[in-house]
């Protein structure tokens, strides 16, 4: 779990009046919803209905539409009626809470989207097919952690982004710990975390992507036979160890290229490739572009971001 990182997170507090609802359309990232107070429903893709109670945590897959209905509203309320809101208005990360509907709030949620990876290569929630629903309590203090993360995201001070990601990571780690004790079916998605030898092998590859790994060396390092290792690794990741290693190396190379501190030949070596041509060919297959063009685009995006950020601070 120590190799998990949160690369981005946008969170907002949403306050719903009784009977109010919000419709969030499909997005590229999974969404997270934590119930602070009150009750209501989350309806995923118009089919799966999840009852919200305080300290309930819900993670919904990417590319799913979501409707959130505060308590007091009959099921099936018109989405175009009073109190509804479209995704174009709902942008997680606002410094002020979103107030939905009229009257006193009967439901308070922390809502947002995020991207989390295990090591530098595995998107933990990319293949999530159905919602994760887990009940916590006040003792877990997730409401406080969520609040701190939102404050850091909203202040735009130096280090706020990394601090918010670190806080949000605590939330996800608390959720993933449930893999060890929960009987809910969603824990099967994170079987890797309950298979120490396979997790150890992955952590080795993630920390040293340039090393000369082979299936045989990985088997020896974790004390498994070749057949057992291959079967358990594929069950955890959905692909072979060498395929995962290649993705780890390409992700590492992409980060080095974006940092713009090493030559492409040096990046190739750091990614475990002795030949620049072999590295370039594999990189193109993975990212659809050659390393030099990837570096140029990363620089362009960074300049654009810094320009926009400095303009925002001036305003």
Automatic annotation (TrEMBL):
Q: Which InterPro entries match?
A: AraC_lig (IPR032783), AraC_XylS_family_regulators (IPR050204), Homeodomain-like_sf (IPR009057), HTH_AraC (IPR018060), RmlC_Cupin_sf (IPR011051), Tscrpt_reg_AraC-type_HTH (IPR020449)
Q: Report whether Chloroplast shows up as a keyword of the record.
A: no
> What are the alphabetically sorted keywords of the record?
DNA-binding, Transcription, Transcription regulation
- Secretion signal, residue range per the UniProt entry: none
Q: Residue limits of the HTH araC/xylS-type domain?
A: 196-297
Entry-linked PANTHER family: ARAC FAMILY TRANSCRIPTIONAL REGULATOR (PTHR46796:SF7), HTH-TYPE TRANSCRIPTIONAL ACTIVATOR RHAS-RELATED (PTHR46796)
**Protein name, UniProt field:** AraC family transcriptional regulator
Task: Recite the lineage of the species.
Answer: Bacteria, Pseudomonadati, Pseudomonadota, Alphaproteobacteria, Hyphomicrobiales
